[in-house]
Amino acid sequence: MDDELYQEFITESEESITQLNNSLLDLESNPENTEAIDDIFRQAHTLKGNFGAMGFDNAAKVAHSVEDLLDAVRNGEIEVTHERMDLVFDGMDEILDILHEIEAEGESQRDPSDLVEEIRAAASPDAEAGADADGGGEADAENAAAGADANADGEALDLAADVLDLDDPEVADADELFHARIELDAGDMKGVDAGLFVGGLPDDLAVVGAEPAVEEIEEGEFDEDFVVFVADVPELELEPLLEDLWKVESVTLTDVSSLVESGPTGERGTGEPETTAETTTDASEGSGAEDPEATTGDVDADSAAAAVDAVVDAYTSGGASTGGTDAGGSDTEAVGTDPDTDVAESGSGDDSEAAPSVGDDAEEVSSDTSDGQRSGGRDERPDSGGSDGSGNADSDGSGNADSDGSGNADSDEKKRSNGDDADDDSSTDETPSISEVKSVRVDVDQLDELHSLVEQLVTSRIKLRQAVGEDETAGRDTLDELDKISSNLQDTVMDMRLIPLKKVFDKFPRLVRDLAREEEKRVSFSVEGQDIELDRTILDEISDPLMHVLRNAVDHGIEPPEERAAAGKSKTGSVELRAEREHDTVVITVEDDGAGIDADVIREKAAEKGIRPREELAELPDEEIYEYIFHPGFSTNEEITDVSGRGVGMDVVKTTVESLDGSVNVDSTLGEGTEISIRLPVSVAIIKVLFVQIGGREFGVPIKYIDEISQQTRIQRVDGAEVIVHEEKIFPLIRLREALELGSARADSGMIVRVRPADRQVALRCDGVSRQEEVVVTPLQGPLRGTDGLSGTAVVGDGNVVPILDVNSLPIPDEGKQARRQWAPPEDDGSEAEGAAD
Questions:
Q1: pTM of the model
Q2: 262, 575, 807, 835 - which has most CB atoms within 10 Å?
Q3: Do residues 476 and 346 share a domain?
């Protein structure tokens, strides 16, 4: 199997399952939404067809059973219940498990038969009543379903016996024969819709009978549905093929192969000698069209050869766009006409319903040519039309030459020998245009490699700027140009790495639903901001932390319905997941209207575990107490369950977020709810930093955290603590020299870097600031990982390694914390706090 096709199948199937899960949640919350039911039904059908087409029958069977259940819902035969939806979701989980097994091992050995039987039983109108009976309820439902299937099969066989001519070779020699009941979504012009449906039937589809007759169907002379009998097409191929035709609302297949005795494989039709069959096959391959006579074996070798010559002559004489009706006419249209144009002329309005004159090879030409453009090198032709401008020179991509070189190979030799180069320009105008490629698939490893190269380019650019002297005007002008180019390249690469949060957010509605069902709680879940983008690396890492926060909201936050009713709340709790963009950061918030966090309970647990003395915990404000929910091994649950109790979930949240240069904040009101906010950078690795000096050494502070830079004279004292007062808020001062243990000597002068309150309400004191610059940050590894106050290192232009400060983990002096807790803005704006230090 082609690796690209295989990976595309895996990716698209995962996305389809996620979308289907979310659509099913919408249906469960609003069973009367008929549009949602129809949409879900189509999604399930597509999923079934994809797995069937790839040969993974076990997943296709599960999807088929889910489709049957949803069809019963759509037809009003059964109601949407939580129990039935549980089975549907179990089916989705089984398909996902099969998909993961296919991805890991290339195949799946799982046997979903038991689950399929359960889902089919739930699809029966009698299943609910049977389930209430004592014993044998499930068996009754299965028997009822089996009886209904048997009646349907009997009716289909009876109709086949009445309609079909059993002496017809196409019927008598068929290995498979299906009764297909088709319902059209026909509008006011029933005959037109039915005519387009009949016109869209592929030429090679063996329709051996119909009720009413095909001519009557085409005129719209039928009630709500009609029946066609099709021979020798596998069920997994036939159903999606028919459902993709014009205005088809539903297709129900019944196997009636037992009506006839199937002959040996390959001996259908008139039973012509084997050599004749081989000759007609060659003719078909050489011409690129399927001759109606060739399928009956009535064309001899000479006629087949003549057909090939006719096609060659048509191409050589430039007749590819004439659309003639000679032996090669069908193939001429296939190559020389834009398939999209043929679709429009057919009136079907769908790419899959091209006019009957366009053979399968036309689709191959379109697909291969597009692939050639997309691959950026696989197709050696200088333009999309081929080296001769006609689109037929490349036997690889045209679909018009046999592997042995017959067909267009001779045509090419004639062109070269006759010097037809002059004709190339004129024929170019007649070459069908191919839609412009709007996007390409890029392997993530290649994207990471490109990003790495850009990082190296940025570092080299910094070094080059320092190497070029101030007096070298020409060199600096060139360097400025390089700056502009490399910056644009950097921005482009960073944008390519950005992925919408929807990729992660779409997985959570199902998670919340299942958890609420497990804990017998009622939860309304809403999502906002899923279109906001984050760097791929961050997005990969943030999925698990968000999962733990949501599980915590449902498990610890939302109360059982009885407790909520007793507290005067709605029995249905609310959990909201939202994302907002703020400058170079993204804030992801999980908010619930549950019980809130009891700070006293956390104090007691923290004291029991010996995290901190009970006396100190009692003095801490609730805002600081909330931080202990992220402590490793901390949990307020007395019992360990599948959801909580081990104290590892929220620990993962804080550890992961901080490793991504982010921060977590908790805000809660007892009895009203909790809000947990995660602030993350939009992208990683290349950031702008402000270089600060501390005792003769240089450190970097990320620009995104900085709100203001000022003189040291702004330092004030409040209750003995050094602080900066700004807009009625106080920012405890962190002296970087002492925080990083570089000595306690205090300079007479210095600078203050105030951090944005949204990130951390502190101010940093340094000896001086020098410049700001873009750098490539390398996270700390090994024993240095997790060092308080440092997030990584950067190599600057002169080759020196500069530590990058982690604003969130720099220690605040205890006096500063206490002053911030007790701070009350002065009533008189003109009054001043105690004198400045230093």
A1: 0.52
A2: 575
A3: no
